[in-house]
Amino acid sequence: MRFTKMHGAGNDFVIINNIEERIPEEQLPELARRLCAFHTSVGADGLMAVCPAENGGDYRMLFFNSDGSLGEMCGNGARCICRYGYENGLAGESQRVETTAGLVTGERIDRRRYRIRLNDPSVIDLHRRVNAGGEKYDCAYMELGRPGLPHAVVQLPDFDTMDRGRLRELGRALRFADAFPKGANVNFVKLTGKNELKIKTFERGVEDFTLACGTGCGSSVTALTLLGLVSGREVLLHSDGGDLTVSVTCEGDNAHDIYLTGPTNMVCVGETLEI
To answer: By three-state DSSP, how is residue 83 classified?
Structure first.
């Protein structure tokens, strides 16, 4: 089975062209667990399968977290798969990608940089009180798309100086908090400038921090824009894996047209005997 490994700002993925490989979809969760395992296989945050379109898109993207769970969508993954689609002749410079959370559009800016329009939020709650680790936190919560990809945004000005183990424990506690029935990806953020912030995301399905999270960046900028803390125009986010920018249109209590822009990187192309 041929595969491509890519990463977007350090968020890494194994991509297979299932239009050609024709692996039964019910086998993909186990394949994700095996291929994404570090040390014993390729290693990645998730697996993406390119499948035939069903609703007028150029192709369909199935995303699986490293634990084999199906993810509704992945922002950095979508940016990477748009480059994959363009360079493998599946679509042009503008693309329509079908995801579990709904249609995502992508645009090639140059050889490495791609911009995608994330799914619009279907749920927005800017002040959800959450109990975790014996303390209360005021989180912004939203779900992108339908079914919604859940994200909690936590303003924590000292997160980048906290002990990493302690921060991981807090991220895990918030991820499984009762206030989030679906669980949540947890984004710790701090403002570092007028239209600039640092972000670190504890991802559901990876169950640890990743180097970047595209939908987490989109959700965080949307929340902070609605709260009046950033402008929503070309907001710069610094993550451990690199920088991303987000723009969003907010009208009253609603948000739409969330655009995520950043680099994509081809790591390798190869074959695996995992199946």
So the answer is: helix
